[in-house]
Amino acid sequence: MAAYFALIVAVLSRILPHTFGTTSVGFTAVGGGLLYFGARRGRWQGIFAVLALMATDFYLTTYVYNYPFHVSAYVVTWLWYAGVCLFGHQVLASKPSALRVAGAVLATSTSFFVLSNLVVWAGSSMYPHTAPGLAACYVAAIPFYANDVMSTAITAGAFFGLPALARNIAASVRDGLHSQRPA
C-alpha cells in the first residue's frame, strides 16, 4: 500500500504546483516515487506507475499547458518511467541500504538529465544541432538537474528512510521494555 501512496505523491507533486501557482519551486517526487514503487511492487506492477504518470503527462499537456498532445514527444520519458521502476526493483527491492538509495537517486536523476536534454536538443530547434549546441543544452539544464537530484533525494530518503527509522525506534522501545522486566 505504501508504494501506491508514493505513486500518488509523485502524481500530486506534478499537478499541485500548477493548482497553487507554485511551479517555480521545481520539486517533483517522480524519481523517488518510481524508485520506491519499483522496489516495493513486482516488476509487472510498474505498468500502473507508468500509466498513472502517462495520464499525468496527458492532463498537464492538454489541460494545464493547453498544448496539443503528441505521443512521440513523450515516448522517451515513458520508457524512463518504466526503466526507473525496473531499476528500483532490481537494486532496492532486497537490500535498500542508504548507500544503495543514494546511488539509485544519482543514477535516476542523472539518467533523466542526460535523456531528456538529448531529446530536447535532437527534437527541437532551441539549440543548434552541433556539439556546442548540445553542450549549451546541457549547461542550460544544470539548475533543473540540481533541483531533480534534491527532490529525488528528499523523496527517496523519506520513502525508504522513514520506515527504517520507525523499525529502529520500535526495536529500541521493545528492547527497553524487555530489559525493564523483573527476572
Main attributes of the structure:
about 180 residues; elongated; membrane; DUF6580; transmembrane helix; transmembrane; mainly alpha
In short:
By secondary structure, this protein is mostly helical. Helix content is 77%, strand content 0%. The chain has one domain (2-179).
Detailed description of the structure:
The chain is built from seven helices and no strands. By secondary structure, the protein is mostly helical. It has one domain. It holds the Pfam family DUF6580. Keywords: Membrane, Transmembrane, Transmembrane helix. InterPro entries: DUF6580.
Query: Taking all residues together, what is the mean pLDDT?
Result: 93
Give the total of domains: 1
Largest sheet: none
Q: What is the end-to-end distance?
A: 41 Å
InterPro entries: DUF6580
Keywords: Membrane, Transmembrane, Transmembrane helix
Pfam family, one: DUF6580
Transmembrane segments: 20-39, 46-65, 71-89, 101-124, 144-165
Architecture blueprint of SSEs:
Blueprint: H1 2-20, H2 30-40, H3 46-64, H4 75-92, H5 98-123, H6 131-140, H7 142-179
Helix pairs in contact: 1-2, 1-3, 2-4, 2-7, 3-4, 4-5, 5-6, 5-7
InterPro entries: DUF6580
Keywords: Membrane, Transmembrane, Transmembrane helix
Pfam families: DUF6580
